[in-house]
Amino acid sequence: MSDARPLLEVHDVHKAYGRHRVLRGVDMELRAGRLAGVVGENGSGKSTLLRILAGRLRPDRGVVKGPGRIGYCPQETVLNPAFTVEQHLELFRVAYGLPGLDRAHELLETLHFADYRRHRIGTLSGGTQQKLNLVLALMHDPPLLLLDEPYQGFDWEAYQRFWELAGQLRAVGRSCLVVTHIAYDTSRFDDLWRLDAGRLVDDARRGG
Ligand SMILES: Nc1ncnc2c1ncn2[C@@H]1O[C@H](COP(=O)(O)OP(=O)(O)OP(=O)(O)O)[C@@H](O)[C@H]1O
């Protein structure tokens, strides 16, 4: 596959809530096989931007061109507390039109929570629910993943496993865009932007 065209192109995106102008001309290009980060203070508009990129929110102005299939992992989990992990996988399998759950089960192993397959969501810790949230966004193997604070609630081991998984995805040409207010570990990203005053600026503090 040619790498010439960006996987995601964002041009001059604006969004206001009433008079509160949150995004004021966001530009971005993301290529295949990249691990990208957007950092910014609480309330700077990171989740708003991600919702727009995921097609969940309409911008007031501007253009977003992305792949047809996107994996979106919102900050708040969208899980039903009465259903088990496996029932969630089955629901999403049908929604995505997948023939089976091999990839989903592989992801449970990678994130180390296969033992919870028959557990109801209401009995799981916040970190384990977040792992399922990630698997649901990933199980149809989309070329682009939009992850909003994906390691929220993770312990150190889960955090390491998340980055291993992100590395594996990058190696096979998938791209991840991670939104976080935690600005450490930024050397892990190939591309890093800071959302500041409604615009994305290249973050010069990135290491590596
Ligand atoms: N639906 C909404 N209606 C009105 N204001 C909103 C709405 N959603 C977000 N906002 C406001 O827009 C601003 C940006 O919110 P957003 O959640 O995008 O920021 P964020 O950078 O993701 O914050 P955090 O790091 O706290 O998650 C905030 O001031 C927020 O209060």
TrEMBL record:
<dbReference type="InterPro" id="IPR003593">
    <property type="entry name" value="AAA+_ATPase"/>
</dbReference>
<dbReference type="GO" id="GO:0005524">
    <property type="term" value="F:ATP binding"/>
</dbReference>
<keyword id="KW-0067">ATP-binding</keyword>
<dbReference type="GO" id="GO:0016887">
    <property type="term" value="F:ATP hydrolysis activity"/>
</dbReference>
<feature type="domain" description="ABC transporter">
    <location>
        <begin position="8"/>
        <end position="208"/>
    </location>
</feature>
<dbReference type="InterPro" id="IPR003439">
    <property type="entry name" value="ABC_transporter-like_ATP-bd"/>
</dbReference>
<dbReference type="InterPro" id="IPR027417">
    <property type="entry name" value="P-loop_NTPase"/>
</dbReference>
<protein>
    <submittedName>
        <fullName>ABC transporter ATP-binding protein</fullName>
    </submittedName>
</protein>
<keyword id="KW-0547">Nucleotide-binding</keyword>
<dbReference type="Pfam" id="PF00005">
    <property type="entry name" value="ABC_tran"/>
</dbReference>
